[in-house]
Amino acid sequence: MTRLVAHFEGRKDAILGLIRALVERETPSRQQPPLDEIAVFVARELEAVGGETQLTLHPGVGTNLRARFFAGQFPKETRQLLIIGHLDTVWPFGTLSRLPFRVTEEGKAHGPGIFDMKSGIAMLVEALRAIVDLGLTTERPVTVLLTCDEETGSRTSRAMIEDEARRSVAALVLEPPVPGGIVKIGRKGVGVYRVRAVGRAAHAGLDPEKGVNAVIELAHQSLRLTQLNDFERGTTVSVCVVSGGTTSNVIPAEANADVDVRFWETAEGERIDRAIRSLTPVLPEAQVEISGGINRPPMPRSAGNVRLFERAAQLAAELGFDLKDGVVGGGSDGNFTAALGVPTLDGLGVDGSGAHAEHEHIIVADLPRRTALLTKLIEST
Q1: Which of 110, 123, 175 is CA-nearest to residue 361?
Q2: Pairing label, strands 52-58, 62-69
Q3: 3-state class of 349 per DSSP?
Q4: Contacts of 372 (CB under 8 A, 6+ apart)
Q5: Residues with catalytic annotation?
Q6: Using one digit for the tens of pLDDT, what is the confidence trace for 251-298?
Q7: What integer pLDDT is reported at residue 290 of this predicted model?
Q8: Strand 168-173 to strand 344-345: parallel, antiparallel, or no bridges (unpaired)?
Q9: Which H helix or E strand runs over 369?
Q10: Predicted pLDDT of residue 129
């Protein structure tokens, strides 16, 4: 066991304590008060290890947190290292009472948002604490961005992420790894659309022929959307949430579908976008309205990403473990940095499983070595 891994082994209970404090602050997306509160809580943790923090409030959404470290130690023009995470989760209020924080005999720590990605935030605080307490040095200034709306498309935070990325030599993303501890060097682009069908209401018993059934129109459009799938190219178009109608004796005047799109290449995303926006009604007198669009560009498996992974794999070997890489279909804020040509390494959180699922957990034994790896990357990138 290396000295740094041993250091975090000795800090494991403290790291778990911070993880618990984060998990037990429930932070569903779009819930401003708890997202404001957790941003203040984490800001204080980062200030305690030397960070200069800035909180940016977005009414109705939450607060984005930016923290800068070690800037005074370098010339002003020195390019920074960017570290990205998010404070929001997909879990609604009350989940904690049903799925409380707990550590099992199998060495797994459970709780809503623990894998995606509150354990990654705790790792970051501990890594920065170690750099200060152990007298370690970094190659450059470090900027941390912890956002409040990643799970809903990063609408308030994208501009801030891209602005900081343009001043950065690399980006480290604290999202969870692929189970098995596999870091991510490629991600699909993401599009989110709403397809709205508009018809005309009528009494379903007395004069249904006078109506225009929006649910039927939406069914036609759903079949058209499904035909856009190209699984060989990795392109998926999924109709995921459907609603329509009012009561069982009224021909529906309106129906809606939320559509998820994933793609590997920018040109393919543009093709799908054009196809969705070109949808036309099938039923006479029906209307079709399209909103939404592409909200994350793809994160290509670029040469810069590969080099950054190879550096991380070398550091992991020095710390006594093997690090593997992969590409995934899910998007993250790393898509934004990679699209700007900034070498990006994603999935640096703690090993575990169950993101967005009820068995969500981390493997406690992985905490020391993954925190040590993050520390070495912050030092040397």
Answers
A1: 110
A2: antiparallel
A3: coil
A4: 2, 4, 5, 7, 8, 319
A5: 88, 150
A6: 999 999 999 999 999 999 999 999 999 999 999 999 999 999 999 999
A7: 98
A8: parallel
A9: helix 367-380
A10: 98
